[in-house]
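Section 5: illustrative case.
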């Protein structure tokens, strides 16, 4: 299974591609962040996100795209901008013919750290350990995207085991 995780943000949009083959170990294929200039008009930033995510999907050929679910934000303007970015990420996946799954931030942190209210630094540390990386992914948005991908792999594996029924 190859999963692309996307951490949507209006300044940094993180991405990470994680693969799990037949063994329980995870393999990090790519990660990074698309840095956006707040001086550019929103539509230009959204086009750049779409183009970059489309390029990464084409290059790494994930089977599914995982993103964070909508959460309640205090600032309505920030939430709206985040919604735009999230929509563009979903559009890029749809254009590539990929399914999109969404996970609540608490679920992502629980799957990776074991605690739903973990700090960004804890997520970075656990992603580094789980993927056996030499250094922590930077910026933190890239680590968050990898965490989202890991969350989907763990969830999909659990659901597959449950569907298979009890082993005899």
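Designed sequence:
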């Amino acid at each position: 299974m190859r999963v692309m995780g996307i951490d949507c943000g209006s300044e940094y949009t993180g991405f990470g591609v994680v693969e799990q083959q037949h063994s329980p170990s995870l393999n990090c294929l790519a990660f990074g962040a698309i840095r956006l200039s707040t001086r550019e008009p929103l539509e230009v930033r959204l086009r750049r996100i779409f183009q970059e995510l489309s390029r990464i999907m084409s290059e790494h050929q994930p089977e599914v795209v995982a993103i964070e679910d909508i959460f309640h934000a205090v600032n309505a303007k920030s939430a709206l901008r985040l919604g735009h970015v999230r929509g563009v990420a979903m559009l890029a996946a749809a254009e590539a013919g990929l399914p999109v799954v969404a996970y609540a931030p608490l679920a992502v942190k629980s799957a990776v750290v074991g605690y739903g209210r973990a700090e960004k630094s804890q997520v970075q540390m656990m992603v580094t350990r789980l993927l056996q990386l030499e250094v922590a992914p930077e910026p933190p948005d890239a680590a968050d995207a990898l965490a989202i991908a890991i969350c989907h792999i763990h969830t999909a594996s659990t659901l597959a085991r449950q569907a298979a029924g009890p082993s005899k």
